[in-house]
């Protein structure tokens, strides 16, 4: 590659950097990287170094350093959205509404309160993970989820140094890029399920993420420059707190998610789940009616279950069998009763 072509490549990098809105120190650092690249000329290793510098620039210009969404602090609208997606969960909803009220009263003031870091703890299927998107919708914030189940290294969260081949940022920075804003609702899902060997290191990163005195200067190893996470609204989930470090628990507001009673499951199935399942199966409410007397059989096909995942699978199975009969030329209206319910329940 001749000098003209080399100069053209580095000028493209400079133009990309100039157009980006970056912290001044980070921009200076990137300019120095481009300057060193230009000095390499046609020397050995130029191609690899160009790829590294170009990839780094692509990452830093894509991050939402100064981009934030504006919060909707309307308590009535927030309550309606939370109720639309979730039955019950009164303690969680009340805590969020309390925080929104505080934000509304302190907006623009020096004493503006920090977001509570909620940790929803409960058995499988009790609605922990689905609360994150609802909260984001209520606030009109972006939503991102980071799964901790099976996470095997703190470097997965914090990234690797650019000295390593194929280095890239960690899950936190990747989530911010996906969000496109610096104040998303970030769900840290199943923080109790990281691998045992990496637990101590991962808990150390969690302390930094969740501590308001530290997260304004969170440094990813790949970026090698601090990113302010203080505006992120973190929500964590876990099946229990046994495997969560005390230092992490100290920074969380633990909310226990109770098991659903049969009565609550029936209400959830009627109000939330059945309309959704019918729509996803291409059916309408005219296609299916269900006798009140058989709902207990639908919500408990295998005995007691704390969550609602089995219930959702059961309704999916019912809808699938009905859809098959309609497409096969059968009736278009079905009424489930004690006499025929066994024909539509899935075979477990």
Describe the structure.
This protein is an alpha/beta fold and 348 residues long. The chain folds into three domains: 3-62; 75-257, P-loop containing nucleotide triphosphate hydrolases (Rossmann fold), CATH 3.40.50; 262-343, Helicase, Ruva Protein, domain 3. The chain has helices at residues 3-19, 24-40, 46-62, 75-85, 90-106, 131-139, 155-158, 171-179, 199-210, 246-249, 262-280, 295-299, 309-327; strands at 118-122, 143-147, 185-189, 218-220, 225-227, 233-238, 253-257, 288-290, 334-336. A hairpin with a 4-residue loop joins strand 4 and strand 5 (225-227). Helix 2 (24-40) runs antiparallel to helix 3 (46-62), helix 4 (75-85) runs antiparallel to helix 5 (90-106) and helix 11 (262-280) packs parallel to helix 13 (309-327). The radius of gyration is 26 Å and the shape is elongated.
Which secondary structure elements does this structure contain, and how are they paired or packed?
Layout: H1 3-19, H2 24-40, H3 46-62, H4 75-85, H5 90-106, E1 118-122, H6 131-139, E2 143-147, H7 155-158, H8 171-179, E3 185-189, H9 199-210, E4 218-220, E5 225-227, E6 233-238, H10 246-249, E7 253-257, H11 262-280, E8 288-290, H12 295-299, H13 309-327, E9 334-336
Parallel strand pairs: 1-6, 1-7, 2-3, 3-6, 8-9
Antiparallel strand pairs: 4-5
Helix pairs in contact: 1-2, 2-3, 4-5, 4-6, 11-13
